[in-house]
Automatic annotation (TrEMBL):
Transmembrane feature ranges: 114-135, 141-163, 175-193, 213-235, 242-266, 272-296
Coiled-coil zones: none
Record protein name field: DUF389 domain-containing protein
Keywords: Membrane, Transmembrane, Transmembrane helix
Pfam entry (one): DUF389
Organism: Amycolatopsis samaneae
Domain of life: Bacteria
Amino acid sequence: MLHLRAVCPPDRTGEALDVLRAHAGTAHLVVHRGVAVSPEGDLVEADVAREAADEIVDALCALDLDHSGGITLEAVDTALSDAADAAEEAAPGEGADAVVWQELLGRTGEESRLNATFLAFLAIACLLAAVGVLTDSAVTIVGAMVVGPEFGPLAAIAVGLVLRRWDLVRQAGTALAVAFPVSMALTFGVVLLGSVTGLFDADAVVNNHQVDFVYKVGPLSLVVALLAGAAGMLAMTSAKSAALVGVFISVTTVPAAGYAMVAVVAGDWLRFLGSLGQLVVNLIGIVAAAAIVLMLRRRVQRSPSMERPLSRG
């Protein structure tokens, strides 16, 4: 179940209530008259089945509540109610398979913004990857994969391409185009400083064979990227978000970026080019597979509000 809250101008409250009452996937409908302060109006609350949420949100957006008021959704972890059970039974489909398009747009839009936090996570992930390469530690490489935040913008690009939301594509593309070079430059500086001061020997990377998979790009690299992109988009468009951790561990985008900088310091240009190739293959493969999955899901479920401009809220 999802908990829906809608701030409504008083003249729209009746219509909003009609929308919610008319849908069998609604339970626990509550109205608070005149409690909203900014913007002023009434507060309408309800629990809705996930598989009904997209249709209900579209109907509320058709009343212009996303501009004249506000609509929020949050997951309900536990609902002990016969009414809630009945709503989930009455709503068509399965909750785990339902795509809430506005939720997807909001989530990918938020995770694809270029900010200090995104830069910090990507830089730390690249540095961890470099340490993993220098110490021949596959465990540290896996840690770098988990820390890396790059899947958010990649998913946002796929969403933007499929839904023709070019504002989302630009936002996510800018985040990746800026964050990766900055993080790689920082990693290069740290590795170079460590090499000059004798903290470690970058040339030793030639004998570190446990992490060779990072720079050895091939057909299987594309296969893994495609599978990861498909799994990631399935997780983002359903209630199975826990699967994203496995997606992070399976792709070598951040490790490849870190390895490339270690290879530059070591003067190993073949491994540098191989790492860059691995990075590009993974980025393209993830976006392509995520877009294909999203197109297939869109054929089954379409939403008229998907064409609205990206909200900054």
